[in-house]
Amino acid sequence: MSKLKVALLHLLPIAGDIKKNQSLIEKAVKRAADQNVDWIITPELAVSGLQFSQKIGTKWIMQQPDEWMLNFVSLVQSLNTNVFLGCPEKSESGELYNSVFVIDRGGNIIGKQRKITSIIDDWSTSGAFIEPIDMGNVKIGVLICADAYNKNIADKFLAKGAEILIAPSAWVQGYTDQTVSGNKDR
């Protein structure tokens, strides 16, 4: 495998401000692409911001790709890079998922991973599909936030041939492991 240049976007999406977050993502992806990176990884739920459901609910979540995503994949193609985009999605049957979409240099959505371990995502359904995404020269596994809390999911990706694991996550002030564990002294 050759060297990869990766940009990890450290963004602060605003919970529920979809248009502002989409604009922020576009600007950050353009800026990262100017550095000739191979992969750009957004945080978990970059489009919606963490805890969005408490502010705007979930009725706005659509099947992907929606109009914005179609425009975004064209942008990714024009920048000649690959992007891992954290975005909620609705399935054909109506379930909601915390997902990461993998968009290649050609502007194609070549895969997606739905978050499996939903500890505090009361709005989302747990994904069940664990399969590496073939990036052409390397197979990757996507662990979304809590999916990386133990090694079970990572081991399944590795057993299926994943060579690299990435773990897009998002944390906001007051929303740390103490929220999950109940330990207020951390």
Automatic annotation (TrEMBL):
* Keyword line: Hydrolase
PROSITE patterns annotated for this entry?
CN_HYDROLASE
Task: Return one GO MF term.
Answer: hydrolase activity
This chain belongs to the protein called: Carbon-nitrogen hydrolase family protein
The answer to whether UniProt assigns keyword Coiled coil to this entry is: no
Ranges for the CN hydrolase domain? Answer: 4-186
